[in-house]
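for the record, two folds in this file. i put them one after another cuz i was lazy. first one right below, seq on top, structure tokens after. the second one comes after a little note so u can tell where it starts
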Amino acid sequence: MISPEVSTSETVRTVYIIDDKQVIRAILNYPMTNGRNIPEILRLVEAIQTSDKEKVATPANWCPGQPVVVPSPKTYSELLERVKCPHGLKCIDWYLCYKNKNYL
């Protein structure tokens, strides 16, 4: 990619993460003067795969093996179950609960 703010001929390093259905899942842009962070790219791929497979979200600065965020309840009965704080969940409040990935 070419960055018009910087130059008309110098490229910007761009990483596209595309899933198996040909959907762009993430775009990372790096300036020409800086290299890419391969561990971060691999972490992001793992986070996307974990979210897709387990139907969870990964919080900021998440690394593989750390707790993931469980989706909030969609019905009142699910909310009542969540308030009981089922096994394996660590809840901050009824809408924000973490679960260790090993328990999924």
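(here's the note) second protein begins now
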Amino acid sequence: MKTVRLKIDATTLDSPRTGRLNAAQLDATTEADIAAQAAQDDALTMQDAAQFARRVRRRLGFSQAEFASRIDVSLETIRNWEQGKRSPTGAAKALLKVLDKAPEAALAALY
């Protein structure tokens, strides 16, 4: 494999690089705007997790109560996940991913 080395002299560039940045909008953004956007992003993340948990359960064909029993968590936990009040973390999140990708193996390992 051949290696080619290039040197770029920034002083000889025709024009400065500009991205698609709206400087006026950026300058007008306040800390409150940033906090509101962060809260909105967090809410969307929770909804994504809720939809994922609901989709996994429905793909397996379980009711919420049956799913809770099968993965050994409370029914309230399943409800909180699916309503977006809480998000599965750690081992629960990993288990949902395994149930999504290899449901037969995951369910066999649980029982």
